[in-house]
Amino acid sequence: MGFMNKFFRVGFSLLMAFCLSLGIITQPALALTAQQKLVSEVWRIVNRTYLDETFNHQNWAVVRQKVLEKPLSDSNAAYTAIQTMLKSLDDPFTRFLDPEQYRSLQVNTSGELTGVGLQIALNAETGKLEVVAPITGSPAEKAGIRPRDRILKIEGIPTENLTLDEAATKMRGPSGSLVTLLIERDGEPETEIRLTRDRITLNPVVSELRVSGQGTPIGYLRLAQFNANASTELANAISSLEKKGAAAYILDLRNNPGGLLQAGIEIARLWLDSGTIVYTANRQGIQGSFEAYGPALTDDPLVILVNQGTASASEILAGALQDNGRAQLVGETTFGKGLIQSLFELSDGSGLAVTIAKYETPQHRDINKLGIKPDKVISQTPLNREQIGTTADLQYQAALELLNENSVVAGKT
CA 344, CA 352: separation in Å to the nearest integer? Predict the structure, then answer.
C-alpha cells in the first residue's frame, strides 16, 4: 500500500510538472502596446502595397523586428521608429505624417492652407530640400522664390535634419506670422528671405480670352495645382471661353507641382474624345489604365506650356495630351516624377503616404527622373507674376507662333 501511495505521489508530481510546463508553452503572447500596434500597422500597409517588392533590397520583416525590439514609451517614440523604418526604403515620397501634418495635407488638397505657399520635394540624388514650385499669388512667389531653389534652413534649423513633412510644417503657421528661409540657388550666393505667412486660397484656375496678333480669339488657361476643385473649375472656364468665341487654347502648366491623380485624369478627359490617358503598374507589374470616353468640351487646337516646375499630375496630363496628338508642348523639360502615392489614415489619426505604383504615358514612356521633353524647347529666365503671358514671356509667345504657323485656327477666326 505504501508503495502504491508513493507511486501515485510521484506520478501526480510528474503530471503537475508536465501541466505547468505545458501552461508555460501555451501561454498567450504578451499583448502589443498601442505604440507597437501603430508600428505594425504601418509595416503591414507598406508590406502589402509598396511598389518595390525588394523593399530597397532588404528583409522587410527584419526591419520590423529591429524596430519593435526597442522600447516605445509614447507616441513620439513610435513616430520616430516609423520614420526610421520608412527611411530604410530610400524613397522620399513614402513618408509618415503625424496627426497635424495629416490634417494639413487634407486641407491642402481640399483647396486652402495658411503658410508661405511652397510646393517642396527632397531631391533623390542630393538629398536636399528643393522647391518644386511656388503657389501662384503666394508670399513665396511674391518674394521671388523659384523652382529648383534649395531651402537650406528654416528659422535657422538645417533642413538636412528634417523630413519633408517636418519642413512643410515649419513653414506653415498663423496668417501674419513671420518665417525666415535660407535659400541656395545655382550661380548665386545663399540668400536669407523673410516671409509673412498668409491664407492661401487654392483657386487653381486663371482664365482669360485674349486676341492673337492675327486677331484670333485665344482662350488662355493657367492651372496652378490639381486639387479637389481643379477639374470642375477648369471645365467651367473652358465652357465660358467657348461661349465667348475662343478658337484655340493655351493651357499653362508651368510651375504646377501636381496634386491629386484623379484630378489629372478628369482634366485630360475634358480635352479628349477617346484614348488612353495613363497606364499604371504596381509591383506585380499588373497594368491598369484610365481612358477618355468623351465627349471633349472642345476640339479647338491646344498648346500646353511646361517647365522644370511642371510635375506629377501635370506630367500625366501633358503626356496624355501630347501622346494622343491632342496638344503640342512648348517650354522646358518637365520635373520627372513618375510615381504614384496613396494616402492611408492610421488608427491614431496620423497618416501614411506610400508609393504604390508608377505610371507611363499612353505611348508607354516612363518619365520618372527624366521628365517630358516639349515639342518646341524654349528656355527663359524666371518671370514675375506680371510678366506671365506678355511679350516678355518667350514661351507664351512661342505658343502663339506655333498656333499661327500651323494654321491650326484656320476657319475659326
Answer: 5
